[in-house]
Amino acid sequence: MSPTHAAQAGQTADAQSRPRVEGEREQEVLDAAIDILAEVGYDRLTMDAVAARAKASKATLYRRWNGKAQLVIDALTSQKEPMTAPDTGTLRGDLLGAFCGMGGLTDSRQVAILGSVITAMARDTEFAEAFRRDFIGPKKAITTEMFRRAQERGEIRDDLDLELVAAALPGIVLHRTFLLGDPPTEELIAKVVDQLILPAVTRG
């Protein structure tokens, strides 16, 4: 065997021998990525740092993820419980149920993580596309479904642009959080729902 072929064979054997990241080990890596994301933000997160925190080799991470954008998206989606739209019988109850508490706008860790990726979305188109599709997309779909059900109950107007109104509540609350410094409390969310959202969408 020539030296070149021997080297190629060695590289192939080495690649095959490196452990794959899966199961509990995969979740450990994803948890490490979330911790670092919350600590330093997306821009300063590196594959080296995640590998070190998870006690894994960088080569092992690259066997599973092609870069930090894919890793961070998988880490973000791994933190979420299976999403279902609350069905309380009223739009107000559904909105408060969805946006207050764990995983909602009053979940300080979730909001901190969201804040850590906002600047990256303006510069990293690959990450922005994946984040909007895989993280924001499911949340937006659930909110739209709550408004659609309210429409079917006759609770709100039929002429609404549901895509537009579905983004109103999180848009207002997050604007106040990141730009005005108001914490996203249950009281703030209830005020936005009662004073802005419901008057805008209900009949009469």
UniProtKB/TrEMBL annotation:
Transmembrane segments: none annotated. It comes from the Bacteria. Keywords: DNA-binding, Transcription, Transcription regulation. Residues 23-83 form the HTH tetR-type domain. The keyword Signal does not apply. InterPro entries: DNA-bd_HTH_TetR-type_CS, Homeodomain-like_sf, HTH-type_TetR-like_transc_reg, HTH_TetR, Tet_transcr_reg_TetR-rel_C_sf, TetR_C. Residues 1-15 have a biased composition (Polar residues). Residues 1-25 are annotated as: Disordered. Residues 46-65 bind DNA. GO terms for molecular function: DNA-binding transcription factor activity; transcription cis-regulatory region binding. This is TetR/AcrR family transcriptional regulator. It comes from Nocardioides immobilis.
